[in-house]
């Protein structure tokens, strides 16, 4: 997905919010805004938003000296998500379609976002999302691909959200490789966050090798790219991964909430819709 004009003020707003979390030094905060503003004027619109986000958050860390400003928030969001785990598991157990219920729960976890969609209320938003209909629902194709899959490559998104992914992984009952970011960026999940969520008990956790808020393949490690190329069934969580991979010709199912108008328009849905979308352009 390309970068749209509406993305530019969003990046500046994210930079201010992250800088305030990273430091109390107003001179550093002002420097972040100045330098990110100067960066944005030279950003090609052909870039995906995660490519720009990678540069923005690197600049924030460089200026503030804080390499993981969201660390405390990440741990707290995972702790909160774990407290909801028994209730969510019970919901799956009582559902007429356990797999679809687990998919919806995994998507509901995508509300945990301190980047573009920072103003969320986890418990209240969760109730709303679990009661929503899908904007796009390629469930039958998902089920068919899953039945035929030997293993699953699962591209994680945010810390806390990993707990919701765990429920889907448990329900799919297939070997899973769970992918996290190589280094902290926003509240995206790293190895430590996935372990806190209990993913290590169910899946092989690997790093994509990138510090971008999305799976930008050209910035990923060669080891990850080899696994990606060989994968026949990929689950991609969240907006950042959608923005980075939406033009890929590969077997990917995108699970996300369309949290901004730009992404909603790109998908052809309404803002706030929940999405289970298969890439249409591949032929395996």
Shape: globular
Radius of gyration: 18 Å
Count helical runs: 12
Are there runs of 5+ residues with pLDDT below 50, and where? none
Number of beta strands = 7
Q: Quote the distance from N terminus to C terminus.
A: 23 Å
**Structural class assignment:** alpha/beta
How many domain regions? 2
Strand order of the largest sheet: 1-7-6-5-2-3-4
User: Biggest sheet, open or closed, and with what strands and sense?
Assistant: 7 strands, mixed
CATH level 4 superfamily of the largest domain:
Uncharacterised protein PF01937, DUF89, domain 3
Key traits:
single chain; Helicase, Ruva Protein, domain 3; 12 helices; alpha/beta; 284 residues; Rossmann fold; seven-stranded mixed β-sheet; 2 domains; 50% helix
Write structural notes for this entry:
The chain has helices at residues 7-22, 26-40, 49-64, 71-93, 98-108, 122-130, 139-148, 161-172, 191-196, 222-230, 238-245, 261-267, and strands at 134-137, 152-155, 176-180, 204-207, 234-237, 252-257, 274-278. Strands 1-7-6-5-2-3-4 form a seven-stranded mixed sheet, sandwiched between helices. The protein is 50% helix and 11% strand. It has two domains: 7-64, Orthogonal Bundle (Helicase, Ruva Protein, domain 3), CATH 1.10.8; 71-278, Rossmann fold (3-Layer(aba) Sandwich). The protein is built from twelve helices and seven strands. Helix 2 (26-40) packs antiparallel against helix 3, helix 4 (71-93) runs antiparallel to helix 5 (98-108) and helix 4 (71-93) packs parallel to helix 8 (161-172). Strand 5, helix 11 and strand 6 (252-257) form a beta-alpha-beta unit. The protein is of the alpha/beta class. It is globular and about 55 Å long. The mean pLDDT is 94.
